[in-house]
Amino acid sequence: MKSNLLKQILIQYDEARLEEEVALRAREAEAMEKIPELAQLRSASISSLAKRARDLILKSNNGAGKESSQELDNKKDQQLNQEAIEKNKEKERKLLVANGFPEDYLTIRYRCQACKDTGFVGDLVKEKCNCLIQRLIQETCRQSDLSSLDEENFDTFDETVFPDLPLEDKGISQRDYMVQLKNIFINYTKDFPNNAKKNILFTGKTGLGKTFLLNCLAKEILDKGSTLLKMTSYNLFDQLFSSPVSSWDKSQHSLKDRIFSVDVLIVDDLGTETKRNNITNEDLFNILNERYLQKKHTFLSTNLSLKDLKDWYSDRVTSRLFDRDNTMIIGFSGQDIRLRPKK
């Protein structure tokens, strides 16, 4: 994942490891001052480890083949050496406990034992550790408009909130149509990020479930460990316009970087932004075009119809929005579910 967010978190991992190494050295100094025998055990363990390393190097240099009596003796020495190391460790633990210290006092304390605070697991093939995935999810949610994902996701999808009444333009009921969309987008998230169409455009009036489905998509994608930014169109373009490019402060640069670096950008309520001459058109085109060139996913929702979008935005913008080779255009219709009486 090529994102500033990932880099920032990995820097925090590096700082955490360094902090713990410094703390370990301080604990070692404290324990050895109180327990002089520890220094002797440590010295013996270091000598044993050095001997073991030398034996491994010599074995490697001798090459493969039938084992000689000398090699068998070396193996026996290595086994005895390893046993000595383990005995010293056990003596060390007993000395610590006898002097009022925890037995793991001189063991490095990783926040995550699986990755040892590197963020990645695996020997030959490195994969993101669960702790790193969780950190990415937490940071992305904190920085984005994703506070409602616990309530709005595929697991909480309730088809009964949609009227079981026919949609004239679909040939099925509004309820069945929403169930169809749910299944389509569950499969979409299973294929993510290798989807043929990277963009999704939801169109239709308010109260038809567009934002809810966007949140469902966001939750599934975040759970896969990808980065995501979700903003309303008004907030996005208001923040981009708030300072001239020449004097953008650190937060402005951060927003611009995140727009282009996150795996998924979600822009909700497209068309509600303040229209500032041609600036909004240019900003939107640059966002859509650059993310298209980078083969990144962009999801948008709007209360405007396709005709209204053509009137509101430039031809270059609508050309990107309506590119059906790269965009799934989903129309919503029916009754506003927010106006329906509560059960």
Q: Which SSEs are present, and which pair or pack?
A:
Elements: H1 4-34, H2 36-62, H3 69-98, E1 120-121, E2 127-128, H4 130-143, H5 174-191, E3 199-203, H6 210-223, E4 228-232, H7 233-241, H8 250-261, E5 264-270, H9 279-293, E6 297-302, H10 306-312, H11 315-321, E7 327-331
Parallel strand pairs: 3-6, 3-7, 4-5, 5-6
Antiparallel strand pairs: 1-2
Features:
7 strands, elongated, 2 domains, 343 residues, alpha/beta, five-stranded parallel β-sheet, single chain, Rossmann fold
Word description of this protein:
The chain is an alpha/beta fold and 343 residues long. It folds into two domains: 118 residues, no CATH class; 196 residues, Rossmann fold, CATH 3.40.50.300. The chain is built from eleven helices and seven strands. It has a five-stranded parallel sheet with strand order 4-5-6-3-7, with helices on both faces. The chain has a two-stranded antiparallel sheet with strand order 1-2. Strand 1 and strand 2 form a beta hairpin. Helix 2 runs antiparallel to helix 3 and helix 9 packs parallel to helix 11. The chain is elongated and about 85 Å long.
